[in-house]
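Subject: Protein record for review, amino acid sequence with backbone structure tokens
How to read it: Take the token row as a discrete description of the fold.
Enclosed: The protein record, placed directly beneath this head.
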Amino acid sequence: MSNYYDSNRDTREKILKRFSAFDGIGLDLRNVNDYDEALASADLDYSAEKRKMFLDNGIEVPNAFASVKAGTDEVLGVVGNQYNPVSNREAFSIAKEIVDQGWGNYEVGGPSFGRKNVLNYSRAFLVVRGDDFQVGEDTFNSFVVFNNSFDGTTGVSYKILCQRVVCMNGMTRFLGSKKNQLQINIQHSRQANERIDMAKFIMRDKLNEIDHIKREAEAFMKIGFTREQFEKEIVPLVLREKKIVEGEKERQRGHERIDTVVSQLIQAYNADDVQNYENNAYRVILALSDFETHAAPLRDCGNSQYYLNNLTKGMLLTTAVAKYIADTRGITLK
């Protein structure tokens, strides 16, 4: 596997004071090659079980069950009759096939974090890293992020996620359909050959997504976009998308939030690492991806996984800006 960035965290933090979305979450699995070891090391080798629910008076709650971490009494969520828990071992087995086939390496994984960085076993993730690739003059890391949910919400899913090395900004596919946000039912992939076929499908889809990211970047590079247009069109759009609205009781707080966001956007637009794309729309995309990847939340809940969650949701702010530019400047991809 190609590897173009220094994996030492101290060094990474010195690069424009940026950080990877994977810093501070889960367990570092870059020295792990065995699936069993990866699950054990990252505290991922667990599942859930359904248990009946009862009211205080002993009456059973119909058609509702508690999803409980197996072997414990820790409630992970409330689910219905059709819910059938899939263990992390089974859900992430496709990652095993990808690594075993030599298409990637384990990167990081573990139970998710909630507020105040409290471990949340209702959701778990595992990240596999693939080859690095080039977009213009930039090197990007590529990843497949697997998620598993025991609270009855999202089930098993994977997401193609890339990271620009020079500034550790996240990058996903911004235009077109949400084809890269596929849901995978691991229960129907228990046989080894079926898992390998699914792994091959994921890798093919991953390559397609990277190709789309490259073509999107090239399309934005061809479109002129000045700083004045950025300030006049993009900054107000971001403020609307973030729903920063002044209220009578929070007028001063509203002003402070607006000033903070505007300052962070201008700082991202003026960053040294985007100067090679001066006066074109790709600079706007890079600035927004920088802002969305690294800007602290307006209300800090102490969740270090906040940044990764933003990326795996599809980088909604950057996507909104990309779609706006595409619609107003006539960008289309065949």
